[in-house]
Amino acid sequence: MHFESYDQEGFFDEMFDADNRPRCGADLLVSKIESLSWEDIRQRQAAAEQALLRAGVTFNVYGDAGGTERIFPFDAIPRIVESGEWQRIEAGLKQRIQALNLFIHDVYNERKILADGVIPKEIILSAGSYRKACEGLHPPRGVWCHVTGTDLVRDRDEQFYVLEDNLRCPSGVSYVLENRQVMKRTFPQVFEAARVRPVIDYPSHLLRTLEDLVPETVDNPTVGVLTPGIYNSAYYEHSFLAKQMGVDLVEGRDLVVLDGRMMMRTTHGFERVDVLYRRVDDDFLDPLAFRSDSYLGVPGLMDVYRAGRLGLANAPGTGVADDKAVYAYVPKIIRYYLDQDPIIPNVPTYICWDRKDLDFVLAHLDELVVKAADESGGYGMLVGPHASADERTEFAHRIRQNPRKYIAQPTLALSRVPCIVGDHFEGRHADLRPYILYGRDIYVLPGGLTRVALRKGSLVVNSSQGGGSKDTWVLAAGAPGGMKPPQHTAGGKD
Amino acid sequence: MLSRVADSLYWMSRYMERAENVARFVDVNLQMTLDIPGDSEGQWQPLVNASGDRELFVERYGEATQENVLGFLVFDAENTNSILSCVRSVRENARWIRQFITLEMWEQINKFYLMVQRGAAAKTPGSITHEFLEETMMASQLFTGITDATMSHGEGWHFCRLGRFLERADKTSRILDVKYFHLLPEPAFVGTPYDDILWAAVLRSISAFEMYRKRYHQITPEQVLNFLVLDREFPRAIHHCVISAEESLRAISGTPSGTFRNPAEQRLGKLRSELDYIQAAELIDGGVHEFLDNIQIRINAVGEAIYEAFFALRPVGGTGGTHSRRAPQ
After folding, report:
1. ipTM, 2 decimals?
2. Helix extents (H) in A56-187
């Protein structure tokens, strides 16, 4: 019995309830695991790792001299999301992305929300990711974020919270698809019986979303994925998606603006490009409009875009809503544009820009997680309870120097998932990143990337900081165990 | 197709072929040291000369002992044409165009890379074995087979094929050159069993022994030249390689045979027609070394013209363009 000695240590566990009984939908998987010898489990884990290594499913780590390429650590025990729970997540994500798109469009155009005093104007205009060059832009159908990868976490109270929206170039979806391929080979029988919803059609949905951006006068559109190149941490994903969609993977040096159109250099001369799924950050997209020292982008790209001769996903400027101080206002944004209460709540957030909040944050540094408002990927943050006194003093200094740059949140007790550690299972903290596409309508991929903090006790799940991943099984309605009503009731477990 | 992608396909394929040919070079010498009694050390210098990286070798190793030459040609990361470096370049190029090549091609490259990395980490030059070299040749041939069987035979495939055959033509000429000049003119060997052994080793090093025997039976230098330079059908013969490269070049550009629209087609066409009509006796009269040297120079010139015609596309007045990842020859 592999799970007999499994200790939840007081955290919410995604696989077992507080009495160590498998949660709704997880029983099939748990009984399968229990039927295997430990040797067999290890072998399946090793086979999964081998498959990923052979396929070269890697990511690059910045600032690491010893070989820039690594295999993304993978744990063969899947994370299960039961269908009722997923329905709520899906509805919450749709609501949120709809409101955020209305918000971004408003901020770069009429600014009604600022005029109505819902969000202080200074917060928006001082955001490092606000792009003046985007003022007055009208992307097709008013959609700015075509691809979003929202980070969700679950706290001890069983509630899912939105941690970050990731409205710019969220990565990780390739691992969702690769992990699934590997898992189908690792646990074929249980996979079939569990009625796991497929994720394999993501590239088709993505391609359709991109084709929706083709300027209407174009008959035979050319779509491309724009990558910064092989040294980018997500290069593997860029090439993977281009390949799965069957479109060109281009770099800035492949492109040139000629006669007001975006062209690529081919062996038979220049050819027109109509839509770019760009995985290059705003700053580097066009040296004439943004950072002039960028070699990754294409001079003149923004002019072609503004003239409606090029589709871009995502539109430039979306990062303004990713600013963590702006994030704090998203519940208000949802109420303002949709007149609805948020289905998935925010994590309570203190904005250091606000004098009252600042005092509170400085007085409670040992309890809070402090984050730089314009950073992502786990860089530039302080996990108060895990930091030393010196680190906290140093961080307090940084906050005082530039309060606008920081926000703080209570340290969440992230839910845990069982992982293979040595010769037994141990709980590790995890988050969940579902992917949302917004073309003519909104599509949420039934699945997502479950990232796991593989270091014992760690709360940082980012791949650049020692995180790994798991396959995420969203169960179809009516799946075994899925007929029971969801077991969560407010405030407690059975 | 994108110029940059074509560029990477071409070089991926050339480096793969180069890795295989270095293994062939090294393997034939290892075999010969076993066949020929006495001092075997003198046999290693010609390999360095033929590699085109003699200066780098002298600077890094000095004397051309078996151990030094093996270390330099197989696992030396500083030598851009060592097997290790070639395989790394194959993979690096493949990474740039991973969305373009097939999963099977990528997996074979990755397997090959992991195998050579393991070898480099574990082995000292003294223990580079026939088995390792054979595995290297096999990995490259497997890759070629996978490419032919999984990739559509369109423009991208033709760029792979073009790179492969130009590289192979160059390397066959180098293998021949070094053997012809450094091993044959030993007057004592001519007409002795060693003569036969040496030529047989050369033929074996390019997997030509059996096909040669079927065609010509007895081994004579003139027939060997006939076979390895002028044969139209043997896949490693220079003539065959040039014909195949030209086929692919014309498939890419659509220009009919006998005409040309760019210097690459002109240069390759001239080289092919010369090989069409020359005879082995003429070739020997004019000097075999001079002939082979000239072929290498002309293949280089074809390579440069291909770069200009297909990879270095610049807008009028622009400064853009792709960079080439070729190694110095």
Report:
1. 0.77
2. 83-108, 112-115, 121-125, 173-186
